[in-house]
């Protein structure tokens, strides 16, 4: 997967080898290579243009890091841009306030929609959420049978009314049934066509109107590249999607679809299909995909390490931020990383006078707390990390982070309020006052 794209990008780094630093003139060849690489990977043209221009701005604005060559730094910048284009963090499936959560599956025929319906049901079942699958594709009789067979295989019930019933009516009754049976999530498989067609869109729109889904997931075949971009655009414009499932990522996907969907629709890819089996579904993590596209783990680590060292030199800046109470979650995460690089928390704490009396138990508890904080912060968007106040005012953001990190909404709430408390305390400490720190980030 993504092999060709990775090879092509390799050519871009080469253009910068042997240079002392990135400059307006020497970067042009490298950017041209990136552009070609993406176009050959079948990424949508507008997406490519924006991508290249962002990389250019970032590369020219990047500080020189000692110990890092310009080509290595360029790899890192492209990596970060790949992550940004794909959406930064994994966005989990929406959950309705009151059951059932209704998920509407949309997409063309042959993209893997029916398979994805079953895969999603199995995924949710593993999370202890009960499911009902609804078969509304009455045009292809085999489609209903296919869903029934899959349902048996994964032990998830299927609601159907045969192939003479009206698809809208099937969907409506399916949701009613889920409600009556106390089912958590109902996933509606819909009819696909080989191409976008007015009747299919009209039917989908009516089903959406009727069942008011919490999610409309567009199933996109990752092998289709440019076509996927057009498809996403049309579906989003006419139906309004809330996310996508990218299928057949186990095949020889060139990468185009993975990079276009989010930019085109503003909606995240939530899952990827990585095989024909029902188990072959994974949550979509932009960071992992970006790393796979580049396949340059060692360079990325090297630049990160060097950046961290430079950050140490930035300690003064950090202090200023603290004094002005501008310290944000990004800074906090940096500090956590530094702590980790320096060894275990226990080791460090023991070096601090007065802290050496902490028991191993207390130290272990501290480390667990820090890990919790870290995974919650990692589920925040860049914007949220920079502006923690966004989180104190938005329960839906806190809920999303809770789901993304696997903690409770109240944990996220506590992290945010503790953080704000810590920030003002640090500010006071910086001014020479030392308030107590009891209970900070504790259980
Ligand atoms: P639908 O017409 O959109 O409902 O598509 P189906 O669910 O019937 O899938 C079409 C074909 O794609 C089937 O042969 C599936 O086994 C295959 N398929 C679906 N998802 C994946 C995937 O993630 N990887 C691979 N390799 N094949 C898949």
Search tags:
443 residues, alpha/beta, Four Helix Bundle (Hemerythrin (Met), subunit A), Rossmann fold, 434 Repressor (Amino-terminal Domain), 3 domains, eight-stranded mixed β-sheet, 20 helices, 9% strand, globular, binds guanosine-5'-diphosphate
Give helix and strand order, one letter per element, not per position: HHHHEHEHEHEHEHEHEEHHHHHHHHHH
Largest sheet: 8 strands, mixed
Can you say what the CATH homologous superfamily of the largest domain is?
Answer: P-loop containing nucleotide triphosphate hydrolases
Tell me the number of structural domains. Answer: 3
Rg (CA only): 25 Å
Percentage of residues in DSSP E strands: 5-15%
Helix content: 55-70%
Mean pLDDT: 85
Across the major sheet, the strand order is 3-2-4-1-5-6-7-8
What small molecules accompany the polymer chains? guanosine-5'-diphosphate
What overall geometry do the principal axes of the alpha carbons give?
Answer: globular
Per the CATH scheme, the topology name of the largest domain is: Rossmann fold
Enumerate how many helices there are, as a single number.
Answer: 20
Would you report the number of β strands? 8
Poorly predicted runs of 5 or more residues: none
Family: Belongs to the GTP-binding SRP family. SRP54 subfamily.
Pfam families: SRP54, SRP54_N, SRP_SPB
EC number: 3.6.5.4
Organism: Mastigocoleus testarum BC008
Question: What is this structure, in a nutshell?
Answer:
This is Signal recognition particle protein. Residues 268-281 form the SRP54-type proteins GTP-binding domain. Helix content is 58%, strand content 9%.
């Amino acid at each position: 997967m993504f092999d060709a794209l990775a090879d092509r990008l390799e050519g871009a780094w080469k253009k910068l080898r042997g240079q002392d630093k990135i400059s307006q003139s020497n970067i042009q060849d490298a950017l041209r290579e990136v552009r070609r690489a993406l176009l050959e990977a079948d990424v949508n043209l507008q997406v490519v243009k924006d991508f290249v221009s962002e990389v250019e701005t970032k590369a020219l604005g990047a500080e020189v890091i000692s110990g890092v060559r310009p080509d290595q730094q360029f790899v890192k910048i492209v990596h970060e841009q790949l992550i940004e284009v794909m959406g930064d963090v994994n966005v989990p499936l929406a959950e309705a306030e009151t059951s059932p959560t209704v998920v509407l599956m949309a997409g063309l025929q042959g993209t893997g929609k029916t398979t994805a319906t079953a895969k999603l049901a199995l995924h949710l079942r593993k999370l202890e959420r009960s499911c009902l699958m609804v078969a509304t594709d009455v045009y292809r009789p085999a489609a209903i049978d296919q869903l029934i067979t899959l349902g048996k295989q994964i032990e998830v019930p299927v609601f159907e009314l045969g192939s003479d019933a009206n698809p809208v009516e099937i969907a409506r009754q399916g949701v009613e049934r889920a409600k009556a049976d106390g089912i958590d999530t109902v996933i509606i498989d819909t009819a696909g066509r080989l191409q976008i067609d007015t009747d299919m869109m009209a039917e989908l729109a009516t089903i959406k109107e009727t069942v008011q889904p919490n999610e409309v997931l567009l199933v996109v075949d990752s092998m289709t590249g440019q076509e996927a971009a057009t498809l996403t655009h049309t579906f989003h414009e006419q139906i309004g999607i809330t996310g996508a499932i990218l299928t057949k990522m186990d095949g020889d996907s060139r990468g185009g679809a993975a990079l276009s969907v989010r930019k085109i629709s503003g909606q995240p890819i939530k899952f990827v299909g990585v095989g024909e089996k029902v188990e072959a579904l994974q949550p979509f993590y932009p960071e992992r995909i970006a790393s796979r596209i580049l396949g340059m783990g060692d360079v990325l680590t090297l630049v990160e390490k060097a950046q961290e060292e430079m950050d140490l030199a930035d300690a003064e800046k950090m202090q200023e931020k603290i004094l002005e109470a501008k310290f944000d979650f990004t800074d906090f995460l940096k500090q956590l990383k530094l702590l980790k690089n320096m060894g275990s928390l226990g080791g460090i704490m023991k070096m601090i006078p007065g802290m050496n009396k902490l028991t191993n138990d207390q130290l272990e508890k501290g480390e667990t707390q820090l890990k919790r904080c870290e995974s919650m912060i990692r589920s925040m968007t860049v914007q949220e990390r920079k502006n923690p106040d966004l989180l104190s005012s938005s329960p839906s953001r806190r809920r999303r982070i809770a789901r993304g990190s696997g903690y409770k909404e109240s944990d996220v709430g506590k992290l945010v309020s503790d953080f704000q408390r810590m920030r003002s305390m640090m500010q006071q400490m910086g001014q020479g006052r030392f308030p107590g720190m009891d209970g900070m980030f504790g259980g």
